[in-house]
Amino acid sequence: MDAHKAEHTHHELGFWRKYVFSTDHKVIGLQYLITAMAMAVVGGTLSMLMRYQLGWPSLPSPTMEKIFPIAFQGSIMAPEFYISLVTMHGTIMVFFLFTAVLTGGFGNFLIPLQIGARDMAFPFLNALSYWVFLLSCIVILSALFITSGAPLGGWTAYAPLSAIPGSGPGQDTGMTLWITAIALFSASGLMGGLNYITTILTMRTRGLSMMRLPLTQWSLLVTAILGLLAFPVLLAAGILLTFDRIGGTSFFVPAGIIMNQMPLDHSGGHPLLWQHLFWFFGHPEVYIVILPAMGMASDILSTFCRKPIFSYRMMVYSMIAISILSFVVWGHHMFVSGMNPFLGSVFTLTTLLIAVPSAVKTFNWLGTVWGARIRFTAAGLFAIGFVSMFVSGGLSGLFLGTSAADIQLQDTYFVVAHFHLVMAIAPLFAAFAGLYFWFPKMFGRMMNETLGKIHFWFTFAGAYCVFFPMHILGVGGQMRRIYDPTQYAFLQPQQPLNVFISVSAFVLGSAQIIFLANFFVSIFAGRRVTERNPWHANTLEWTAPCPPGHGNFGEELPEVYRWPFDYGVPGEVEDFIPQTTPIGAVAKH
Amino acid sequence: MPVVTQDKRIIIPPPRRPDDGRGGGGGGPEDSHSSFPVSKEQIGLWVLLTAIIMLFAGLTSAYIVLRGVPTWQNIELPWLLWPNTFVLLLSSFTLELAKGAIRRNRFATMNRWLGLSALLGVVFIAGQLAAWRQLVHAGVYLPSTLQSGFFYILTGLHGLHITGGIIALGFVMAKAARNRLTAFNHQPLKLCTTYWHFMDGLWVYLFVLLLLS
Q1: How do beta strands B3-4 and B10-11 pair?
Q2: Which positions in chain A touch B22 (Cβ < 8 Å)?
Q3: Confidence grade of residue B34 (pLDDT, cut at 50, 70, 90)
Q4: ipTM of the predicted structure?
Q5: Is the CB of residue B93 less than 8 Å away from at least one CB of chain A?
Q6: Residues ≥6 apart with Cβ < 8 Å to A378
Q7: What CATH number matches the domain at A303-527, 3.30.70.20, 2.60.120.200, 3.40.50.720, 1.20.210.10?
Q8: Top-confidence residue, A237 or B14
Q9: Average pLDDT over residues B171-177
């Protein structure tokens, strides 16, 4: 027993084993975080290029031609380059930023710390998961650097476009790289999910029952289960797609496709099948992104409101309800695909049902904020911003989930506005909230609060300026993946709005430089934290040192006596009671 | 549970630590705070099996959807699949015998059954490959019909999983050779057996799916 403890507390490793090839969950979590941040910079830059094209479509730019000689041949962006930007931006952001940063980054860092464990259940598998993830990042990024170009199929990789290698310049090698990267990512996700589920279920410390878990942990558990059920289906679809591409099979390719005046040697496939399989994965995937964001925002909101989260149990149950419903709504992505209209009505019903648990969560957040003495820290602001973005984006989901309205709005900028607010900007806000909140635990230093608040206000205003006008563009008929809106007379009156969005996007993008500078400078030069619990929070990670050493908790693992939301308990001296405080051991007024 | 060995000695299991409510081994004493009734290795295996179920469920749904298209053509399944199925079922049985042997502390017997199970697994893989050859001789290739495509992909993926199982059995045999398995702690063998039975059931399911078209 003593030898075992000694191993946990006083075992020094060399630089490479400690910071690079580590099996420590905290190092792996930070590796995920920083890799995903690098991917975000790439994905964000791609979106800036898209906004450049949409704001000023026919404006020749010799400067851009110098930077991207192939993509800007003749000083104007090539249409296929624009479509490859759409594909790569979507793929990088959905998989390699949001899925990776929320479950890979925060999941790895927080799970053992918040449940009072020394590490994950299978540390080696955990490390392997990161390295496979890194490999998948390299594979997907390499698609940007090949001469035939990046894939054009969108992040949904719709067949038969994706199934026929000659269907476009990026559809040969580029698409192969896309499939490879997604397969590797799925494998990495499986290894991660296996760890998350096992760790949360079996390694909780003494006294930490499931109903005493922070909501972050619940959300990570539910997310891991979603990923476990959803990603293998994407893998199955990817296997069939690969055989269509290289094995000559025709699972997704119908007969009668003519390419370069030659009929293709495929017959009998079913392009809709790809959509069904993809969205069976794809819809749970958006909850894989949003659920951890919800969990983290709930905990952070409660901490800075100095109030318990409103209705903890309903928060847990609504998360479970959302995750179950997420598997029976995928058809709402396919209302205009030629699917049976009756099936469309069924999917409308199930989709609108999701509004119920989502609204439960929203009202609970409002109930938490209501009447609170809110501490407006950067982390707290971003958590409130998360609720704002989630509500703004979620409300337009009601229109899109109703098949009658969706037939009008399908594939317009209304959809772009909806999903960006609800599953890109909202999780981004939660991730920022998490970074500002857990930064002292990660690095033992604080991020600059003033810069954090400036970053918040620019990001908050910027996000609304970028994505709110898109609703108007969409109702006006601007198509989702359009390369040049000025080509159509009916879209030309809306062009000033496109210019406004582009300018706002550049401001929003530049504001992130404030964050990156704040983050990386603070790692080395931020104010040192003097106490373990700078925010006066209740969860277990705040009882560990900043940053926690190998083994997290020193000699003894913490013991839990209460739930994590004892903030502002009437009659107590302090307005917070950590989970490790025994019942009856609190100073009274 | 006391265990009676071959030479009629009675072995009483070592007393459990009071806070170790979990079955099987795994984890140091520090990990044993949780009262969760299942070991982490077992949970890990179930998670893995769930992922495999979803993989084949995805393929099954594609199979059922495409069976409805007018160009669907059934292929004649190779007769070798029947003896292959028998071999795989037999290997599950021998693996159970191996587990039974270690419970009674008969290590040599266990090693024999383990080896035979792995061998039967290899025979199954060889049999599946021979079935592929049969189809190729009949002129049925991967792109020939939709069902032939599914046949090669489903049997191929299942074969890969069985290969993984054989490798896992190899690890168990290596552990047994280093005397790491005991009557009270042979979790690797138990996990391997669960996986193997699952793959066995999966094959029966796939075979029925392919037969019923």
Answers
A1: antiparallel
A2: 202
A3: low
A4: 0.92
A5: no
A6: A432, A436, A447, A449, A452, A453, A455, A456
A7: 1.20.210.10
A8: A237
A9: 90
